[in-house]
Specification:
mainly alpha; about 45% helix; binds zinc ion
């Protein structure tokens, strides 16, 4: 019976779990990033929320693709239904209480209500929709909510 020496086998090196670490270094954008109140105010005034030196709209509600001054990609911000929703909210809270107060105090005929509230509602809605959309774009810009480019979504705004 030949004697067999035990073969020394090196134990495999323990495999330590490699924990994935996210890249926490944020690349600084090429455009200025103001604070939230300033971005909201600039957007409300219809100016670029980033630099405040160019227009945010090139139509009534169409947002420019890029700021002509600082190059901020404003066209990639998808405000969607937030501006109309906020406008309805604001205008409703102005018109409905006035309507109720008038009805409670004076109880005018129906045509008076129609003549008063329909034009007021139209003027307020059309007047506030654009500044509110600008403020929403400013809000989304400040929060870094730059979506996909409009071309990839098939949109034109
Ligand atoms: Zn700009």
């Amino acid at each position: 019976m030949p004697h067999t020496a035990p073969i020394a086998v090196a134990a495999p090196a323990p495999v330590l779990p490699v924990r994935w670490q996210p890249d926490r270094t944020m690349p600084s954008p090429k455009w200025p990033l103001p604070g939230m109140p300033q971005a909201l105010l600039r957007g409300f005034k219809g100016a670029c929320p980033s630099c405040g030196k160019s227009h945010i709209f090139n139509g009534y509600l169409r947002v420019v693709k890029e700021c002509t001054n600082c190059g901020a990609p404003l066209g990639s911000i998808r405000a969607d239904d937030v501006p109309p929703y906020a406008t309805i909210f604001v205008v409703g809270h102005i018109v409905v209480p006035l309507m109720l107060v008038l009805e409670k105090t004076e109880a005018p005929p129906l045509w008076v209500h129609t003549v008063l509230w329909v034009p007021l509602t139209l003027v307020l809605t059309l007047g506030l929709l654009r500044p509110i959309k600008g403020a929403v774009v400013g809000l989304m810009f400040q929060l870094g909510m730059l979506g996909a480019q409009p071309e990839s979504l098939g949109g034109d705004a």
